[in-house]
Amino acid sequence: MNLRDKTLGFIGTGVMGRSMAGHLIDAGYPMRVYNRSPDKLGPLLEKGAVACRNPAEVAREADVVITMVGYPRDVEQTLLGPDGVLANLRPGGIAIDMTTSSPALARTIANAALRHGVAALDAPVSGGDTGARNAQLSIMVGGEASVFESALPILQCMGKTIVHQGPAGSGQLTKLVNQIAIASTLVGVCEAMAFARRAGLDPLRILSSIERGAAGSVQLSAMAPRMLAGDYAAGFYVKHIVKDLGLALETAREMNLQLPGLEQATRLFEKLSAGGGAEDGTQALFRLYVDAGLV
Amino acid sequence: MNLRDKTLGFIGTGVMGRSMAGHLIDAGYPMRVYNRSPDKLGPLLEKGAVACRNPAEVAREADVVITMVGYPRDVEQTLLGPDGVLANLRPGGIAIDMTTSSPALARTIANAALRHGVAALDAPVSGGDTGARNAQLSIMVGGEASVFESALPILQCMGKTIVHQGPAGSGQLTKLVNQIAIASTLVGVCEAMAFARRAGLDPLRILSSIERGAAGSVQLSAMAPRMLAGDYAAGFYVKHIVKDLGLALETAREMNLQLPGLEQATRLFEKLSAGGGAEDGTQALFRLYVDAGLV
Q1: Confidence (pLDDT) at B2
Q2: Are A57 and A83 in contact (CB under 8 A)?
Q3: Which of A96, A97, B137, B243 is deepest in the core (most CB within 10 A)?
Q4: Residues A117 and A91: beta-carbon distance below 8 Å
Q5: Residue B53 C-alpha, separation from nearest chain A C-alpha, in angstroms
Q6: What is the CATH number of the domain that holds B148?
Q7: What is the pLDDT of residues A18-33, one digit of tens each?
Q8: Do B173 and A219 touch (CB under 8 A)?
Q9: Residue among A205, A215, A236 whose CB faces B163 most closely
């Protein structure tokens, strides 16, 4: 069966979701869309998407429904319960949650899907706005291998690196692994640059000495220049990393695993968020170090 | 004046120093060498180096003396005092300390050099054994610009990225910036891999999802596979990162700068060292997380 015979649904058309749904429409899939703020649907409706009034209405006429919403509670509300996607999908349908959310909730959703005679994948992404716009996302997938295989042509419209990581929840776990690595790396970059500036050195000149060596990282090369320029515009929001690190810590505790570096990074980002930085980009962590006395 | 008319001295011919001194001999410089354990001089003597019995004897007949020793106290003993390099160098000579050492000590040495009518550079390196062997080191230099210029042909025999970072101490400060970034990055890599393994995932498969994205770093790509294989052989010794992070913390305190991520990383490496890991490579930090209860 040609997958383009399938009707897709997309719920959550924010900055990332809009680009991702757009690629699927461009690939020829009929598309039904829902967003809590309907004004964000405009560009997709122009491309031919059908607007729906709620998640159930998306699901009823769709074979595959993708969700890209905000927080685990939004995922829960959208997918579970009598008005949710799972209860209203056609038999054999697939729900793919691409929100960064809780691994435990992903397992709950996969079990609920089974009871409804449908299937679920957890498939969070990394690569940000740019990755979504260029269909270059890394998509980390958890769920049944056969469901992954049948969803792959759809995922390939949105991403470049698409890896089946294991059973339900594994996609979310992989995304949390990613966030754990990023958070401490960014703390290191931030503290390195704070040290350089406080020492009266030229931090950009220092970058020329260190960024191609053992200290090299995407965070160092991408974020250090923004920190130094005082450019705190969001590529990835502080409020979102606070959410993700909270999920990572919660999951680590469930596994009885202590991660002191993650705890430290979470405290720093929470302090930044509480101090008015929630809408800044993650590189604004540098502010904690340049605004004396905050750390 | 052709620099190859100059006689060089090299003090400290361990794994790194031996390769570095070898490149200078290969480039045609007459070379005088000293090492606390004279048995390590063998390969350099075969290349034509002259063995000396102490640092003063190296300095007396040399125009430029390079030191690559262990700890700041070794740097101090080798360079300062009546039997040290500075007191015994010919007028106009240059002492280049390439040990990772204290920025404050580097400034003390530069001032002492002036009083002796000689000059000093602090020029620590990154790139490890491999960088030393292939003359691909990054060399971070502090001191007078004119002295840097005249030493450059010598440094170019040992390194690829050679940057004058500022006045005396700036090379050491830059190296500490490098180590600050590495330490927290490595903590993040370690905790990410510990989380992945504890969650029952395949950590190498996770690397395929995350290592080319925002979590990407030299530490992730180089160290995660060694951690997962239980390969703790030293590229860079735990005892050396403990030294470097101690210097960084001490310097941060002198500047009244709090770096909680660095403090956390230092505690972890110190615990690893105290638990018998001093001679392991830095990636052995992973052991703290797999040996339950240690963190």
Answers
A1: 52
A2: no
A3: A97
A4: yes
A5: 35
A6: 3.40.50.720
A7: 999 999 999 999 999 9
A8: no
A9: A205
Residues of A with Cβ-Cβ distance to B271 under 8 angstroms: none
Task: Say what the pTM is.
Answer: 0.95
- Which of these, A19, A174, A133, lies nearest to B206 by C-alpha position? A174
Containing H/E element for A193?
helix A170-198
Q: Is B175 a catalytic residue?
A: yes
In a domain, A2, yes or no: no
Q: Are B262 and B248 within 8 A, CB to CB?
A: yes
> Is the domain of A133 the same as that of A201?
no
- Name the percent of chain B lying above pLDDT 90: 95
Taking only the tens place, the pLDDT of each residue in B160-216 is 999 999 999 999 999 999 999 999 999 999 999 999 999 999 999 999 999 999 999
By the CB < 8 Å criterion, does B182 face chain A?
yes
- Owning domain of residue B158: 8-167
Cα of B103 to nearest chain A Cα, Å: 10
Coil vs helix vs strand at A273: helix
Annotated catalytic residue, options B6, B47, B160, B175: B175
Residues of B in contact with A183 (CB under 8 A): 188
CB A212 within 8 A of CB B138: yes
- Contact yes or no for A209 and B183 at CB 8 A: no
Identify all chain A residues contacting B185, using CB atoms and an 8 Å cutoff.
184-185, 188-189, 215, 217
- Nearest Cα residue to B47 out of B35, B31, B66: B31
What the block records as the tokens of A212 is 């191609």
Inter-residue contact B86 to B113 (CB < 8 Å): yes
Instruction: Tell me: do B211 and B239 sit in the same domain.
Output: yes
Residues 6+ apart with CB under 8 A from B195: A173, A176, A177, A180, A248, A251, A252, A255, A257, A259
CA B207 from chain centre, in angstroms, equals 29
**Residues near A25 by Cβ (< 8 Å), separated by ≥ 6?**
A31, A44, A47, A48, A49
CA pair distance A196, A219, nearest whole angstrom: 16
Q: What distance lies between CA B211 and its chain's CA centroid? A: 27
B247 and B228 share a domain?
yes
The three-class DSSP label of residue A94 is strand
A11, A38 Cβ separation under 8 angstroms: no
CA torsion through residues B213, B219, B225, B228, sign? negative
